[in-house]
Design a protein that fits this description.
37% helix; alpha/beta; 10 strands; two-stranded antiparallel sheet; 25% strand; 2 domains; D-Maltodextrin-Binding Protein, domain 2; 9 helices; eight-stranded mixed beta sheet
């Protein structure tokens, strides 16, 4: 009888491993070249972006893992993770406030432990963009040149809370493209956005945004991660750790070739 029980346990374990895990992972429905391309709810069938390709490579690295990608407005990505409607989201910068909605990779494996920066997807800076003649500047610590500053940043992005904590009132716009339009129409004095996206928009719209300049140094530089849901980490902690570690390995081995691919 004891041997029979052992066989049942073995078969159950074997079935569980063969069954595998199907994960739903969300990312923003607005493009962020070169990390994800295209706008809207559809995932491009080819050349979807560096971060998208990195996440999809997890299927080849982890036996039994399948991934379904969905695209949502970024605030909806955050909401869906909090409510365990998706298993993960990317690209998510570290914010202590976000520990209420999901998990980052940490050094000690605890929710509030030091974030493990070696297992990020990438590093992105936020920069100030303004009209050349506005007089607005960033000195590395504070904004200068305009006393009654009208400043904007993308809705739901971590930079918003950072700037608010520094005492600035921030108008939150739905998309980075929309922020540039507001800046061009003088509805904002400046916008703080991810420079990978901001620079791309300026390159593609040289004539429209000819009066807009990027100010250095960056306002902030952040590591970005694949966040995982409470549900996933709770039911399969070893898989969560494997996902974060494999993603770091994919970045180390393939990021440079992916960057070459998307720079052509």
């Amino acid at each position: 009888m004891k041997k029979f029980g052992i066989v049942i346990i073995f078969l159950f374990s074997l079935f569980s491993s063969l069954k595998g895990e199907h994960l739903v992972i969300a990312y923003e429905d607005k493009e962020q070249p070169p990390y994800y391309l295209g706008n809207g709810s559809g995932v491009p069938g080819s050349d979807p972006g560096i971060a998208v390709e990195m996440v999809l490579q997890l299927e080849r690295k982890i036996d039994g893992l399948t991934i379904e990608l969905v695209r949502l407005p970024w605030p909806r990505c955050l909401y869906s993770l909090k409510n365990n409607q998706v298993d993960g989201i990317f690209n998510a910068s570290y914010s202590k406030e976000r520990l209420e909605i999901g998990w980052y990779p940490t050094v000690d494996g605890t929710l509030e432990g030091p974030v493990d920066t070696s297992r990020n997807i990438t590093v992105i800076s936020y920069s100030l963009y303004t009209k050349a003649e506005s007089g607005l500047d960033w000195n590395g610590s504070v904004f200068t040149g305009i006393s009654q500053l009208s400043l904007g940043a993308p809705l739901g992005y971590s930079i918003v809370s950072d700037l608010k904590l520094s005492g600035y009132r921030i108008f939150e716009f739905q998309s980075t493209e929309g922020g540039f339009l507001m800046l061009e129409r003088n509805r904002l004095d400046g916008i703080v956005v991810q420079d990978i996206t901001g620079d791309s928009i300026l390159r593609k719209n040289v004539r429209l945004y000819k009066d807009i300049v990027k100010v250095t140094p960056p306002v902030a530089t952040k590591e970005y991660y694949l966040m995982l849901s409470d549900n996933l980490v709770g039911r399969n902690r070893s898989l969560a750790e494997q996902i974060w570690s494999e993603l770091a390995s994919i970045r180390n081995r393939h990021l440079s070739e992916l960057e070459d691919k998307y720079s052509r």
